[in-house]
Every structure is written in C-alpha cells, then in structure tokens.
C-alpha cells in the first residue's frame, strides 16, 4: 500500500513535537503489537483524511495518540477518575470504555495537545458519539479497519470507508453493538446513544 505518512511534517500547530518524537513516545507506552496497530490506524486515518478533506496532520496526531492510555494500569486509571472527579460510571466498564476519555486527559496533560477536535477523536474512538466531526469519524473508522484488523465484516467496512465515511460509521456502530450483544457483554449507554443516532430509523 502506498505510504504517504512518512512525508508528513508537523507544523507545530497541534503539538510541539516532531512526528518522529511523538512516535518514539507512543512506542514507549505500549506493546509491539499495539504499536503496530497504532501505526496502521495512522496510515488509514491519513488516507481517509485526504479523501474526506480533513487535516492529515490532525489525523496523524489523533491516530498516533488514540490508544495512549490503553496500557496504563487499572489502578492508575481508577485513581485518575477519582482525583479528576471524572465519570464514576467508567469504573463499572473498565479499560475498554475509559481508555478513550482518560487518554484524552493524559494526552493533553503529558503531550501538551489541546486541540479539541483531536482530543474528542481520542475521547470518542471506541464508543463514538451522537455528534462526531469528520476527524472523529476518521479515527473511529480507521481504528476499526486498519490493515491489522481481521474479523468477519472488516472488508465490507473497508469498502464502505472508501466510498462514504458516514456509511462506514453506521456499519461499524451496528456491528460493534451486535458483537457486544452476541458476547453477552455489558453495553455502555453511550454506545446505544451512538447507535440510536447513527443507525436506528428515527
Ligand atoms: Fe482504543
Ligand atoms: Fe485502537
């Protein structure tokens, strides 16, 4: 696959780090497997950003940072929820739900990224949101279809994403909810709110 991401030079508009330095920090935060996933998300996010008229720089930064908190310990994250007086409901759902919103907190605090669109893309990358900007949609979809993903339906999601970003968001939202239900998993209410807004007939 053509790889345009390496030509990305950050303007310092969103982060004071170079892309190489940001990548180095991200790599230090996670396993090799997750780091590969993050690079895959960046590759797809930059492609989608180009296609749908979103800043490729913002897409690159949001993609590289989207799982920043994923491998922090539960204890550290639980303490952060208490100390920052964040949503106590997250405690009932664990890392899958809290790594997005807490990632946004840590990315702002530790990497100095304050752009609200980037922070919302990190915040909403797992559960979506009723309203998502194009950048948020790009990251939500790229996380689902990056080249390392391999599950029934991912090809369909890739085809949709190449044509229509909103259709890809709809498809992904429905499939995620179906998957959670099939596995008898607890559904975080905002996942249903995302489904109601993007998928359900009004
Ligand atoms: Fe994630
Ligand atoms: Fe991810």
CATH class type: Mainly Alpha
DSSP strand content: under 5%
CATH homologous superfamily classification: Hypothetical protein af1432
Helix count? 10
The value of Rg in angstroms is: 16 Å
Task: Let me know the average pLDDT.
Answer: 96
What structural class should be given to the helix and strand makeup?
mainly alpha
Unreliable runs, pLDDT <50, ≥5 residues? none
Shape: globular
CATH fold type: Hypothetical protein af1432
Main sheet makeup: none
Tell me the number of structural domains. Answer: 1
InterPro entries: Diverse_Catalytic_Enzymes, HD/PDEase_dom, HD_domain, YqeK
EC number: 3.6.1.41
Keywords: Hydrolase, Iron, Metal-binding, Nucleotide-binding
Catalytic activity: P(1),P(4)-bis(5'-adenosyl) tetraphosphate + H2O = 2 ADP + 2 H(+)
Strand and helix map with partners:
Blueprint: H1 19-28, H2 32-52, H3 56-65, H4 74-83, H5 95-111, H6 116-123, H7 134-145, H8 154-163, H9 165-182, H10 189-198
Helix pairs in contact: 2-3, 2-7, 3-6, 3-7, 4-5, 5-6, 6-7, 7-9, 8-9, 9-10
The structure holds fe (ii) ion (2 copies).
Structure description:
The protein is mostly helical and 202 residues long. The protein has one domain: Hypothetical protein af1432 (Orthogonal Bundle), CATH 1.10.3210. Helix content is 62%, strand content 0%. It has 10 helices and no strands. The chain has helices at 19-28, 32-52, 56-65, 74-83, 95-111, 116-123, 134-145, 154-163, 165-182, 189-198. Helix 4 crosses helix 5. The radius of gyration is 16 Å and the shape is globular. The model has no long low-confidence stretch (mean pLDDT 96). One fe (ii) ion binds at residues 37, 41, 66-67, 143.
């Amino acid at each position: 696959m053509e790889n345009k991401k390496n030509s990305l030079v950050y303007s310092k508009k969103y982060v004071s780090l170079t892309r190489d330095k940001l990548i180095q920090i991200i790599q230090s935060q996670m396993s090799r497997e997750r780091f590969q996933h993050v690079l895959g998300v960046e590759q797809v996010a930059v492609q989608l950003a180009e296609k749908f008229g979103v800043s490729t720089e913002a897409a690159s930064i949001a993609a590289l940072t989207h799982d920043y908190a994923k491998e922090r310990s539960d204890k550290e994250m639980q303490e952060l929820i208490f100390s920052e007086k964040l949503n106590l409901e997250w405690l009932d759902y664990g890392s899958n739900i809290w790594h997005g919103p807490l990632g946004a907190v840590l990315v702002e605090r530790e990497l100095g990224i304050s752009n609200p669109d980037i922070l919302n893309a990190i915040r909403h990358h797992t559960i979506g949101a009723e309203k998502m900007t194009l950048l948020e949609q790009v990251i939500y979809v790229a996380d689902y279809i990056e080249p390392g993903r391999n599950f029934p339906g991912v090809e369909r999601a890739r085809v949709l994403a190449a044509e229509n970003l909103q259709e890809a968001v709809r498809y992904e939202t429905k499939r995620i909810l179906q998957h959670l239900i099939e596995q008898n998993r607890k559904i975080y209410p905002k996942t249903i709110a995302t489904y109601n807004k993007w998928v359900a007939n009004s």
